[in-house]
Amino acid sequence: MSRDKKVEKKLKEELQGKKKRNNALLASPYIIWMAIFIIVPLFMIAYYGLTDKENGSFTLANIKLILDPVNLKALWLSIRLSVISTLICLLLAYPIAMILRSLNMKRSSFIVFIFILPMWMNFLLRTIAWQNILERNGILNTILSFLHLPTLNIINTSAAIILGMVYNYLPFMILPIYNVLIKIDNNVINAARDLGANGLQTLLKITLPLSLPGVISGITMVFVPSLTTFVISNILGGNKVVLIGNVIEQQFKVVNNRNAGAGLSLVLMVFVLASMALLSKYDKEAEGKSIW
Amino acid sequence: MVNAIKKFIQKFYLGIMLLFLYAPILILIVLSFNKSKSRSKWGGFTLDWYRSLFESSDLLTALYNTLLIALLSALGATLLGTMGAIAINRMRKSTRTIMMSITNIPMLNAEIVTAISLMLLFIAVREFIPNFQLGFLSVLVSHITFNIPYVILSVSPKLKQTDRSTYEAAMDLGASPIMAFFKVVLPDIMPGILSGFLLAFTMSLDDFVITHFTKGPGLDTLSTKIYAETRKGIQPEIYALSTILFGAVFLLLVLVNLRKDKNQADAKPRR
Asked: Are residues B192 and B242 in the same domain?
């Protein structure tokens, strides 16, 4: 009897060991890839950011570059513009997601399709097309003057950049919110209405709290790319508006000072991580959240 | 009455928002038929740009590079990502959380930081292997890296939905683990794998920032070509090319959607 048990136990252990080995075999290419191309590169940034360009000795000078008034101004402007764009995106996207939910589409993949489709027209070209719309003699002003309305001059200003950010990243706010909203049970909302809550109360007390995970992931997906963009400010700002992304890009591509660029990237990374940590406090479903 | 007004306002708002999203695309399509080379003047209808597009060898090379990188990086990311997702799914919860956090880094981190970190890595590699140049390979590797999270996030939910006992049942019935995987698990998670692949392909195609930093001087994709031309003016052939690409994808996706609808309609009466 006990011998049988021993054999059984041994077999079980062998099977478990085999399973573990199988899993390790499956995981290893992925883990090796991530170690080389995600972890090591981050250390490379830290290495370049913390060493001197000339002799390679340790220095904090590259990090301190952020205190340079020009760079500090760029960082502050980036923060301001990206916060404004994120808020506008949220205000525009939430009603869209609510309306899409109320449409009761049988297959939600169609909605994803509509909002992903624009990505198949190159992102740079779409931003360039906004130049056409916003230019002094552009399409918008032609329409406005046709209607005898005052014309707008927002090309090469912060307003144009905010518009570009909202335009490019709005889908990334709509989709996560929509994905959370369609999962809310109609009965929960009806129950609130039955218990006497009006539309606004239901929205504030039921729908909004339940959709918070979607809102949080939407905010991160809009805020981070807006904070760090250099393309949108380059195309719609016409060199007149400098964001922190532009400063970093120029360090690499124009000034050719990798160490300075890496130092500033390090600061930017800390900013992104800090804002993410702040947001994740409100996000209970940290693991395996799906954005699409 | 109130309801009708509400419905109208809803539809109106949705319409305005779709116009906002699609207006620039419409403008680009119109520009591809514009006889005048200027972006702000309409000079009459022409198909010239579509004709000269096929004579412009550097544009076609850029298109070829873009599509090849998108295809290969999506394939690579799908393979690595699916394997990773299956392995992560089987791990203990604590290990799984760590793995998922690392997986999400390229997606959550700023694109420019990811791009720079990879560029610095390739520059360091160049110190050791003098023959290595930044170019096709470095761009491809970078694209695979930033595409993997999208595949994992598409496949993981499907894996959680699959019942582990079906896999075990297949093994009890004499299937080898590999056979059980291909016959039982893979069909279950296939939709996730496909949408991961499609997402990865789209992301790679639309990428500019990562390519901008990790490419060498010799290589051009459509994005980098367009960026180089933003100052001096875009050649109209690029509008034509983008219109063709956009139209092809639009048609393809509409067809897929229609077919899905038809399949669903066909499948229902049989049940």
From this structure: no
Range A67-280 classified under CATH 1.10.3720.10: yes
Residues of B whose CB is below 8 A from A113: 253, 257
What's the pLDDT tens digit per position in B153-166? 889 888 888 877 88
Interface of B with A in 37-76 (CB under 8 A): 39-40
B3 in reach of chain A (CB within 8 A): no
Check pLDDT > 50 for residue B269.
no
Residue B171 in domain = no
Q: How far apart are CA A282 and CA B216, in angstroms?
A: 42
Q: Does A245 touch chain B (CB under 8 A)?
A: yes
Q: What is the span of the domain harbouring residue B3?
A: 1-55+238-271
Q: Which residue has the higher pLDDT, B157 or A161?
A: A161
> Domain with B145 in it: what CATH number?
1.10.3720.10
For chain B, what is the domain count? 2
- Output the CA torsion sign for A102, A108, A110, A113: positive
More confident residue, B232 or A165: A165
- Residue A8 zone, left/alpha/beta (φ > 0; ψ -120 to 50; rest): alpha
Partner B contacted by A102 (CB < 8 A):
yes
Would you call A254 an interface residue with chain B, using a CB distance cutoff of 8 Å? no
ipTM for the whole complex: 0.84
Break chain A down into helix, strand, coil percent, rounded to 5.
Answer: 75, 0, 25
